[in-house]
Amino acid sequence: MRRIVLVTVFASLLLVGAISNQSFGATGHSYVLEWGEFGFAYDGKFFKPQNLATDDEQNIYVTDSGNARVQKFTSDGEFLLSWGTNGKEDGQFLFPVGIATFENFVYVVDEKQSTVQKFDSDGNFILKWGELGSKSGEFLSPKGIEVDSNGIVYVVDTKNHRIQQFTADGEFISSFGKYGFVDGGLKTPVDIAISGNFIYVSDPGNNKIEKYTSDGIFLKTFDYNFAGKSITPGGLVTDPDGNIYLVDSINQRILKIDSEGNTMTVWGTLGNGKGKFLQPTDLVLDNLGYIFVLDSAYSKIQKFQTPFVLKIQEALAAEQAKKLEELAYSEESSEQEAESSEEISVHEEPVVLDTIKPTLILPGNIVIEATGALTTVDVGEATATDDNGIQLVVNNSPRMFPLGSSTVVWTAIDNAGNSAFATQQINVVDTTPPSISLVSDIVAEAITPFNNIIELQSPEAHDIMGAISITNDAPEFFSIGETIVTWIATDESGNTVSTEHKVTIIDTISPILQIPEDIIVEATSSDQNEVQLGEPTATDNGEIASIINDAPEFFALGDTTVIWTASDSSGNISTGNQLVTVTDTTAPEISQLEDIILEATSV
Hints:
By secondary structure, the chain is mainly beta. It is 4% helix and 42% strand. Keywords: Repeat.
């Protein structure tokens, strides 16, 4: 929430005494308009909205918690913009709750992320701080937030039972508050309001409001009955006079009390009409004096005038009852009227005092399989009984439920106005795995033995919830041979389905063989010539298994063809012929004979 100091003209109105505090009553808070309805992702529709804030231009900010976003409106409910999606990154939310503005900045508390995020007024992310824990600057299910006139940020650290103070940039300053049930103790604080030198903290777990000094020193507890009933306070805000407005969700009403806890004004009753509520959670006062009340169960915001806007004359007892009827405010019971000291004209008729709540019997909790992003659920019928008769049995069930656990609040009202509440859990589960298409096997020619890159075609997958992640176990590179690739489709609920296909890398290409050149050698023998053939080389897209030849050990004179054969690991072969020629160009050697001299024996 964000407390806005009302403009001078209204403060002056009070100073000159144009309207006395004692004359305000519920008649000073007339219904103006309303907007909002249940829905997902659409502008102006809400799912589990939690808190409100306003800025100096009277714009209204709503934490649309179930839709993980913030929506911004004019003070007349005209949609301006929204920001945020579900997630944990900067600018995303898991469950935004408390919201406050200061100057041109918007601060949003995320209960499930245990963080505070800071945006400009157009929703642009600036910074965030906080994490889960109990140390200074850490949070455990934080909820409310407020910024004082000096820009100091106060965060209600709910499950750590304390209030933490920070600079505008998230630097921790100090904290106050402690766990307890007695005065000064906090059980489940949810919101904070600041007025001058005083700080007020609502603690529905203890059914009270705690008052502190601006330094966090405990002063007083407001834990008594207000207008005849104990309170379960939620959102609260202060006005320029230091009075406090607060929502009392259990009793479907808005209270105005002074700084000492005295009841000044009460309005609201159970229902879905003007000035009626089912589950009011927060309220905010803008700088023109209008007050806005958020009803989370009905996903709507109601706008009311306050005495700072409505220049009424001194309220006349005779006209007050008529005004209350016109503005749809319920009459207080006789006991409430006596304790609140408000003079409200009511229709007088003898009644038998009935303070016993009706008996409310609910249908059982429901677990149902999801049929889509939203699932239609028949929540059943509740029964209520009371000696004085039943006036109304209602619930806040939406038409369709999202995945997960939702709480339906049932309310029974008897004819004396006593109410009973009970909750029913609706669990929409998703146990249905997604569907996945088959993927064709792939056969590809090898480029290298081991580092083949294959472009895989992803299968198609479908799920009733929409979002699916698809992964596979394929290696970065494929080797020659068969590889089984498994594809797994996983939906948001963790259900999986898989399919397999085969990637086969083949090698049908023969090696490239480079044989030595043909050889001509001089014979050294007629048939026992040794020849050095040289070294062949071979390359392949696979692996070379062997290079062999059929050369004889010794070569004879003449031509001999040597056949070289290269084989790869896939059995592909290449051959080449090398001609080996053994020649004889050497003349034979003849020994020199000695000259012969003979004596003639004849002429």
